[in-house]
Design goal:
- With 207 residues, this protein is an alpha/beta fold.
- It is built from 10 helices and 6 strands.
- Strands 2-1-3-4-5-6 form a 6-stranded parallel beta sheet, with helices on both faces.
- The protein is elongated, with a radius of gyration of 19 Å.
């Protein structure tokens, strides 16, 4: 099985290569630290499976890179290997075409099994990720109020708290309260992640 590594940390890539060195049925055929190089090299090396981190150097993150890789002719399967396990990250990766989602604190044996499983066409999820997806199905995230949607749209425009307060005629303290509620409802912890989650859930559209 031909394996390609995509991670922005050289030490991580070296560690992964060392881990697989003794696996006789797996050959590392290339690696990349950013999405553009990954797509270009994967098209040339034609691996069977790609290990994909979500945070990469350059203009594309791991989800965007996964989508581009899966759009290649006879594309390889993608196994996400990351430290991030928010609902938004998981859903975005699966929507982009990832066949598996594994956390970096998984033991080596679990990683080996996941790579081989994805290579066989299976869907592989680490237990914490599977649990989050099940929770997401059973208990959908609460809806945003019209005021919260308005604030998310302003976040998407790049507005700061002071500007948002001025435009919707409230205090900055009120804006901060709304933001805390938005973050909780969208299961995120940053402004950028809130906008991304709202777009992914089709709550807002970016022109």
């Amino acid at each position: 099985m031909k394996l390609f590594l995509v991670d922005d940390h050289p030490i991580v890539r070296s560690g992964l290569a060392a881990l697989f060195a003794d696996e006789e049925d797996v050959e590392i055929v290339g690696e990349a630290s950013n999405g553009a190089d990954a797509v270009r090299l994967i098209a040339l090396r034609r691996p069977d499976v790609v290990l994909m981190d979500l945070r990469l150097n350059g203009d594309m993150d791991g989800v965007q890179t996964t989508r581009r890789v899966r759009a290649l002719p006879d594309p390889p399967r993608v196994l996400v290997l990351t430290t991030y396990e928010s609902d938004t990250d998981i859903i975005r990766a699966v929507d982009a075409g990832a066949s598996g989602y594994l956390l970096k604190d998984s033991p080596p044996e679990r990683l080996f099994d996941a790579v081989r499983g994805v290579g066989r066409g299976e869907t592989v999820l680490s237990p914490p990720v599977a649990a989050r997806l099940m929770h997401r199905v059973r208990d959908p995230l609460p809806a945003l109020t019209p005021r919260e949607l308005e604030i998310v749209r302003l976040l998407a425009e790049g507005a700061g708290n002071k500007e948002i307060a001025k435009r919707i005629f409230v205090t900055e303290a009120t804006v901060k309260t709304h933001l805390r509620r938005i973050y909780t409802k969208l299961d995120v912890d940053t402004r950028t992640a809130a906008v991304r989650a709202a777009v992914d859930r089709s709550l807002i559209r970016l022109d």
